[in-house]
Amino acid sequence: MYTGSKHFHSYVAYLVLLLVAIAVLHAVLSLARKQPFTPASRKYALFGLIAVHVQLLFGLLLYFVSPMGFSNFSGEAMGNSLSRLYMLEHPLMMLVAATLITIGHARAKRATEDARKFKTIAWSYGIGLALIMSRVPWQVWP
Ligand code: HEM
Ligand code: HEM
Q1: Domain boundary assignment for the chain
Q2: Ligand 1 neighbour 101 (Cβ under 6 A)
Q3: Which atom of ligand 1 is nearest to the CA of 17?
Q4: What is the full DSSP assignment across the chain?
């Protein structure tokens, strides 16, 4: 269970970074070129959102089966930067980023102007991606 979910979480992480980055790039380029919001634009944003939600769900599962997650929570582990990253900073920051991306997706869907849709996606997914990248355990991954 632990090994499987760890591998899955490790692979889906590539998808998250790739699909969210593509959604941001597409939004920024379309804005710059004043292009309309097409069905493809909607899909870029949707696929980024789905990757993030799948990662969120399995990250949550991993948190409770990993020896580096919830079971490691202690004052002592707080003093170690890698332990603190896994048990606290990584899950919390990823939750904030996923919330931001989900709100951005919903707001873009409701917006009526195409430029407003792209701007909403560019900002929310862009900041979300920066937050995600700030708490990926780069010491051990990829
Ligand atoms: C949504 C974006 C997320 C991304 C991109 C992401 C990415 C990663 C990566 C790249 C690793 C290292 C994997 C490895 O060592 O091979 C990792 C580990 C981990 N993640 Fe996430 N994660 C995300 C969300 C979450 C969430 C929401 C939680 C928990 C609620 C979580 C819990 C964990 C735990 C506990 C580990 C350490 C597992 C271990 O080594 O035992 N992650 N994550
Ligand atoms: C921890 C688990 C999850 C939570 C808390 C969560 C939460 C949410 C929330 C709050 C929305 C808001 C929608 C809105 O009003 O726009 C949403 C949308 C969505 N989620 Fe998740 N989700 C989770 C897991 C998943 C998984 C596992 C998948 C896919 C396999 C998924 C796919 C989607 C899709 C496709 C949408 C919205 C699409 C749309 O509005 O067009 N989610 N989710």
Answers
A1: 2-134
A2: no
A3: 5
A4: -HHHHHHHHHHHHHHHHHHHHHHHHHHHHHHHTT----HHHHHHHHHHHHHHHHHHHHHHHHHHHSTTTGGG-SHHHHTSHHHHIIIIIHHHHHHHHHHHHHHHHHHHHH--SHHHHHHHHHHHHHHHHHHHHHTS-TTT--
